[in-house]
Design brief:
It is a single chain. By secondary structure, the protein is of the alpha+beta class. Helices cover 33% and strands 23% of the residues. It has 6 helices and 5 strands; from the N terminus they run αββααβββααα. The protein has a 5-stranded antiparallel sheet. Strand 4 and strand 5 (115-124) form a beta hairpin.
Length: 184
């Protein structure tokens, strides 16, 4: 699959329009999760200076394995008809800095209706969009869990370390990440 096979999705006008929105990331992938297009905000998030550096790469080229694996599984689910709508997820950036984003993904079909890939759009969350625990604090919690994953840690320990109640920690994980802290 090549960029030219997406003429109805990635016209020059549409590309230019998405490049005018610096806080929105937009991308298109083929059926094998290879990037076919991304707006400037999207590829510059990874430290790239041109779209040509993005083309043909996958999430595994830019993200830690655990994040890339989830993104590719999402692509497969979208190809099978699942909608990803306004989901809050972690996306890495330059120097593996984690960003919390609201993401929506859809299938891309050719003129005959054949599914030929996926497309998505993400917006970074800002702190005032989180009601229980700030996005920055949630990022600290995720980092703490990842750093201590090799040890036996409890929800109580995490809540104490992060100076929040167990119920707030659990509620925030369920609302923001759609899993419990232990599942995460």
């Amino acid at each position: 699959m090549t960029y030219s096979q997406f003429p109805n999705v990635c016209t020059a006008d549409l590309s230019a329009l998405y490049d005018c929105i610096p806080d929105v990331w937009f991308w298109v992938k083929d059926r094998n999760s290879h990037f076919l297009w991304g707006n400037a905000a999207f590829y510059s998030n990874f430290g790239l200076v041109s779209m040509s550096e993005l083309l043909g790469k996958t999430d595994y080229d830019f993200a830690p394995f655990y994040l890339a694996e989830q993104l590719v599984l999402d692509d497969k689910a979208v190809l099978e008809g699942k909608l990803v709508e306004n989901r809050i997820e972690m996306v890495n950036g330059i120097e593996n800095k984690l960003n919390w984003c609201v993401t929506t993904k859809r299938r891309v079909c050719d003129s005959e209706g054949q599914i030929i890939g996926t497309m998505g759009i993400s917006r970074k969350l800002v702190d005032n969009q989180s009601v229980q625990i700030s996005i920055n604090k949630l990022n600290e919690i995720v980092s703490y869990i990842q750093f201590n994953i090799h040890t036996s840690i409890t929800i109580k320990q995490i809540a104490k370390e992060m100076n929040c109640s167990v119920s707030t920690l659990q509620r925030t994980f369920r609302n923001q990440l759609h899993v419990s802290p232990m599942e995460f």
